[in-house]
Every structure is written in structure tokens, then in C-alpha cells.
Amino acid sequence: MIPLEEARAFVLHRCPPPVPADVDLRSALGLVLAEPVEAVESVPPFDNTAMDGFAVRAADTADAPVDLSIIGTLAAGSVSDREVGVGEAMRIMTGAPMPPGADAVVMVERTKASADDTTVTIEIRVEVGNHVRGAGEDLRSGQEVFAAGTVLGPAHIGVLASIGCRQVPTYRRLRVGVLSTGDELVMGTPGPGQIRDSNRDALLALLEAAGMIGVDLGLVSDDEEAIEGAILAGVAGCDAVLTSGGVSMGDFDYVKAVLDRIGDMRWMQVAIRPAKPLAFGLVDGTPVFGLPGNPVSSMVSFELFARPALRSMSGHTDLERRRVVAVSEGGLDRHPDGKVHFARVTVDYSDGTYMVASVKGQGSHQLTAMASADGLAVLPDGDGVVDGGAVEVLLLR
């Protein structure tokens, strides 16, 4: 068996670098910027009011309360061709540009217009700039908005829209094919000795949750020609391919035979539980991950190997899920076997402390228990963790 970190390093080292691509702004959520973005204009582009109220000269409010003449109304989206003079005020709506001559805004709640709407009483004294949003207050023209490597969230998308950046220089969103193989797997009603294929749907969901495009390559029987055709079609149209099953020592060697013939593969027994068997290599330059067939093993293997590698290929530098130190409730038992165990646990957070408890059903075939888990507790070789003991946890959500 080989250590976990050695297997991870091998996979990461052989994966290709991220590919830059200009994408439409509306398709950029979750992607990583491949280069810096600069503002080509200021935001906001002009001085404007942050409140509904009256645009005034601040000096005119020095002896408030004071009556000023109303000279007009300015709505958002309009500009005034009239200057606010001494003793005058202009009614103004949120977002409207400041009229010439005015240097402050009095919020409408601190004013009272006359019955004939010709004068307004300003109840308070205000300073220059009161409730005024200055041009370039958010961004200045020529300023770097976001650095290369920024992961774009909803607020980033909004900022880019505000400066007119509709094509965004990112790294490409990966297309990842998912293939299931095995005569024992079916999509419909299982016959004698058969089970429904669940790994493909779970892996496609994991890819979607990771911000990637999952490509369903189908369910293929134990036939070398069919397996080869499906894998070659996958690597031709995808950035990576995931297969499940056919990588354990006792498996029939259909997948192994095909991948050894058409690719440069390494078959590994990693010192972990679950997910000990792993295959990884390149077929026509495209990474292929051979994940174990047991449902929990397949998902854990994805988390430990495929997800970090695919994130690296997407331009991310933070490759792993978040790890925290938690307190075990009830203990986490295991026996020495030379492997690192990843126990499925529920996670609670209270008063600054993470608390974890083992879920019922730790077998690599017990997918329902995996669905109940919030994290994977990392148990080094040994006797486990006692009740109240500290344990490192990989948070799954």
C-alpha cells in the first residue's frame, strides 16, 4: 500500500494546467479569474444622492430650521440643467445625479414642503457631502477590481456588471465524463444477482455541486470493445473521465485491460479505508480516474483524489474541503491496520466548538449512512478516538 499523500501528489502532478477562456458574465459564477480585471470607468460615474430628499447648498442650512425655495424635481435617470442657487432647494430621488450648485442632500423625513409646494422647511443643519455618493466612491477608472485567482461569487458578478465587463477572462468550466461498467448493474428493475447503478448519479451530482459540468457516458456492460469505445468517446469530449468499479485486485479485468491498452495508468492500493483501490492515468492526454465500485468508496475517493485534482485543473489553489478540529461525542472506534480511516460523522457547531458523532453504518456499501454524514473524521492508524477526544474532520457541507 502507498500513503495517501503520495497518491494525491501523483494525481495532482500529472493533471494538466487550467485552460483560460473568456466566458459570458452570466456563465462565470464559481469560475476562477485567469487574469486581473480593471475598471474602465468609475463607479458610480457621477455624484448622486443616497436618499430621497432635497438637494441643497450645505451653507444654507447653517441656521436651520430654514425655509428654501423649491426650484424643481429631479428623478433618477435624469439630469438637471438648472443650478441650485443661494436659498434654493431641488427635490431629488435616490440615485439621481446631484444638480449643479448643490453639495448636500437633506433626507425627506427632515423636511416639510409648503401646501403650495413652493417652499420647503429644512429642519436640520447638514454638512457638505451629506447623503451624497461621490463619483468613483466604489471604483475608480483604471483601478484593479479583482486579482487573478479570484473565485467569482454573486457579488463579484454584480461588480463586473457594474463596469460593463460582459466577457470575463476565467479558466474554463470543466466537462467531466462519468462512466459505469458491470453486467451486475442496471438502470431499471434488477434481475437475479443485479443491482441498480447508483454511482453514476452520485458522481454526476458531486460534479455539479463542485461547479463542473457532468457528462453522462452511460452504463456499459463487461465488454472490452464497448468499454474502450465509451472511454475514448469520453476523453475526446471531456476534460476528464471518472469510472467506477473494476479497479480492485479481485475484479474482472475488463476496465484494467482496456485502460492499460489505451492509456498510461497507475493502479494503486492506497493506505486508506474506505476507497483503498484507485487507478489514475492519462488517455490521449486526458486524466482518467478509476474509482472503486462500492458506493461510499466511490464518493470518498472522489473527495480525496478527483475533486482536488479537478479543482486544480479549474484554476483553484484551495483544493480541499475545509478541515476543522472537533470533539468526538461517544468516541470513534477503529482497529490498527496500517491505514488512515475516514469515518462518516454528523457535525454540530455550538459555542465555538465543533462536535462530531459517528453515523450508524460505516460499511463501504452503506450509502444511506453517507447521506447522513456532514463530514469525514480522519482517524490515523491506531485505536481511534475516545469520547471527548479531538479529531480532525473534513467538512462535506
Report a brief summary of the structure.
The protein is an alpha/beta fold and 397 residues long. The protein has seven helices and 28 strands.
CATH architecture term of the largest domain? 3-Layer(aba) Sandwich
**Under the CATH scheme, which class of the largest domain?**
Alpha Beta
Distance between the termini: 30 Å
Give the overall form.
elongated
Helix/strand/pairing category: alpha/beta
- CATH homologous superfamily label of the largest domain: MoaB/Mog-like domain
Any idea how many domains?
4
Output the strand order for the largest sheet.
7-4-6-5-9-8
Integer-rounded radius of gyration = 31 Å
Average the pLDDT over all residues and give the rounded result.
96
State the share of residues found in helices, binned by percent.
Answer: 10-25%
The main sheet comes to: 6 strands, mixed
Q: What share of the residues does DSSP label as strand, in percent?
A: 25-35%
Number of strands: 28
CATH topology value of the largest domain: Molybdenum Cofactor Biosythetic Enzyme, Chain A
Low-confidence segments, given as residue ranges, are none
